[in-house]
C-alpha cells in the first residue's frame, strides 16, 4: 500500500513539474570563467534531479560498504540463533515424545555451543528432565547447576528454574526441598498459579492439612482447579483438622467451612465422630442428617445407625422420611434395621433387614439378622445367617488332596500333658478314676498295667491282641510316626515300650 502511495505522489509531482516548466519557458545561464553555459529551464531541472539521484545512490553504496562487517556479524549471530532454536525445539519435542536418549544428545550439543543465557536455561532444564525420566540423577543435577548459573538476576528465569526443579523433587517425594524453592512464589494473585499448584502437592506429601485447605481454596477461587478435584482435597484436609483439633478446637475449624463443605461425607463423618466423643450425640445426629439430606451415602447411613438409646426414636422417624423418597435403598433399609435392633423393635428390624437383603446380599445384613435371631432364641436361623455372612465375605481356598497339614505346635499349651509322663503318673491317675488325656495325644495307647490298675474288669473285656508275641506290632503302634508329620515339632512324642 505504501509503495502505491509513493508512486502516485511521484507521478503527481512529475505532472505538476511538467506543467510548470511548459508554461515558464525560460533559460538558465551559468557563468564560470572562462566558461559560459546557457540552457533551458526544463533541461536544468532534469539535470538537477538526475544529480540528486546519482548522489543518493553513491552515498547509499558507500554506507553499505562501510557497514559490511557489522552486518556480517549480525548475519552470523542470526544463523547461530536459528541453529540453536532448531536444536532446542527438536530437544524439547524429543522430551515430550519420550525419546530421552535423543533429547539428551541434542541438548548436550546445544549447551556446549550456545551463548544465549535464555537458551542455556531452557536447554539445561530440558536436559535435566530427560535425565530425570531416565533415572540419571547425577547427570540431572549437573544440568540443573548449568541452568542455574545461566539464570543470573532475571526474575522470570529464576521462577522457571525453581518450578521445574520443584516438580522433579516432588516426583522423588522430596517435598521439603521443593517447599523451600517454591515458598518465595506463593501469593494470592494469578501470577504464580503453577507454583501454587506445586506448593499444594508438596503440602499434601507433608500431610500439612491446614496449608492444603488454604491452598485448595485459593486455587478454587481463581478457577485454577476443578471443583470435582478440589472437593476431595478439602474434605480430607478438613477431616484431618477436625480430628486433630478434637472437641476443644471443633468450633474454630467448623466455623471456617461453607455450608456445602459441611455436608461432604468425609467432613460430616469426622465432625460427628468428634461430637460423639464429646458426648453431644444430638449434635452429631444433626451433622449427619444435614449431609444425608444431600446424599444417602452408605458410610453416613452406617454412622447414623450407630445411635445411643435415647436417639433411636428420633433417628428412626427421620430415616423413615428418607425411605419414602428412596424405597429401594439397601443401605437405608439396613440402617433402619440396625436402629430398630438398638431400640429392641425386633419385628420392624427383621422386616427392614429382610427387605434390604432382598435388594443386595451383604455380609453386614446377614450378621445383623444372625444377631437378631440369636437374641430371639432362633438358633437355627441365627446359624444360617452367620454362615451366609461368612459365605458372602469369602470362602476358604480348596486345598490340594495330597497336601499333609503339619502338626500343631502345642508346646505352649498350659493344659498339655506329655506322653512321656503318662506312665510315671498312671498311679496318680488311678486315684481319680480316669487317665488324663492331652489335647494332642491322639496316638496315646493305654498300657496294660494302667488298665488293670484302674478297672480290673476292663482287662478281661479288652479285645485280645492279634499277635501279642510279635514285638513289631507294639513297636509300630507305640512309636511309628504319622506320615507327613514332623514329631520333633510337637510335645506329645511317642514312647517306646522298652524304654
From TrEMBL:
Keywords: Cell inner membrane, Cell membrane, Membrane, Porphyrin biosynthesis, Transmembrane, Transmembrane helix. Gene3D superfamilies: Tetratricopeptide repeat domain (1.25.40.10). Residues 444-499 are annotated as: Disordered. The keyword Glycosyltransferase does not apply. Pathway: Porphyrin-containing compound metabolism; protoheme biosynthesis. The chain crosses the membrane at residues 42-66. It is found in: Cell inner membrane. InterPro entries: Heme_biosyn_assoc_TPR_pro (IPR005254), HemY_N (IPR010817), TPR-like_helical_dom_sf (IPR011990). This is Heme biosynthesis protein HemY. It comes from Neopusillimonas maritima. The lineage of its organism: Bacteria, Pseudomonadati, Pseudomonadota, Betaproteobacteria, Burkholderiales.
